[in-house]
Write a structure and sequence with these properties.
This protein is α+β, with helices and mostly antiparallel strands. It has one domain: 2-Layer Sandwich (Muramoyl-pentapeptide Carboxypeptidase, domain 2). The strands form 2 sheets. It has a 4-stranded antiparallel sheet with strand order 3-4-6-5, with helices on one face. Strand 1 and strand 2 form a beta hairpin. The structure holds zinc ion. Zinc ion binds next to strand 4.
Length: about 250
């Protein structure tokens, strides 16, 4: 469809597709962790080996997530088809919130589709399999990662390595509460693979995606495939778009 596209344009198109969660094809399928960025996978294995020496079974609870899956999560919450909870896990009642407040309640725990760091295959939610029974139901809740929680020792071990820049390239983008995303001590990110992806997230491309259109920069040579990739427009779109640059700064950490 774009016969004059240069190799550079094709390559930059791939970066955009990766950045917004449309490119699972360039990730590698690891066992048992699923799809991961090609450089993140070996770095995680190195970190996992070092954790094992200290007695931890470092495991991935959640790695790659597509745009489509994040769209279903966000729109489901916006339209009250899925529960929206507070920090304590209490289910919030929609009628007590304005649209604007509801948006921020969702964003505290769920990213806007296209802006999740889990789109990249570089970001992982981790836990210690050696600290819990095999049938343990992981909640990814702050209490589990607190000093007296089952994953307190792993959290401390990771904190020490990250503080010393000795965690095989991983860091915590949501380690502290910056007023946007709630602190997520379980979320680690392979920094060397993320910077060019974060830079590809522009308000213009996001706004186009959220209106339900595939931006030209993300289209594939076989455009018939693109139609299936966009599930539809974003819920609460008129609340999101006017404050998009501020939302990006507050909820997607560089
Ligand atoms: Zn996460």
């Amino acid at each position: 469809m774009h016969p004059k596209s240069s190799n550079t344009e094709v390559a930059s198109g791939l970066i955009y597709r990766r950045a917004f969660g449309f490119d699972a094809d360039s990730l590698i399928n690891t066992q048992p962790w699923g799809l991961l960025d090609a450089n993140t996978a070996p770095a995680f294995e190195r970190l996992r080996k070092r954790a094992a020496v200290s007695g931890f079974d470092l495991r991935i609870a959640s790695g790659f997530r597509s745009y489509q899956r994040q769209w279903h999560l966000f729109n489901g919450k916006a339209r009250c088809l899925r529960p929206v909870t507070d920090e304590h896990g209490n289910v919030l009642q929609r009628e007590h919130f304005t649209d604007e407040q509801w948006l921020h309640a969702i964003l505290r725990f769920s990213a806007l589709p296209g802006t999740s760091r889990h789109h990249w295959g570089t970001d992982l939610d981790v836990y210690d399999g050696a600290a819990v029974a095999a049938d343990y139901q992981l909640a990814l809740a702050p209490a589990e990662y607190a000093p007296d929680g089952p994953f307190g020792p792993l959290t401390e071990w990771l904190s020490e390595r990250i503080a010393a820049d000795d965690a095989e390239g991983f860091f915590r983008p949501y380690g502290r509460d910056l007023g946007g995303v709630a602190p997520e001590l379980w979320h680690i990110s392979y920094r060397p693979s993320t910077q060019h992806l974060r830079a590809a997230l522009t308000p213009e491309l996001l706004a186009e995606l959220w209106r339900g259109q595939m931006p030209r920069a993300l289209r594939q040579s076989d455009t018939s495939k693109d139609i299936d990739e966009i599930p539809g427009p974003l819920a609460l779109l008129d609340k999101v778009v006017p404050q998009l640059p501020a939302l990006l700064a507050r909820y997607v950490v560089a």
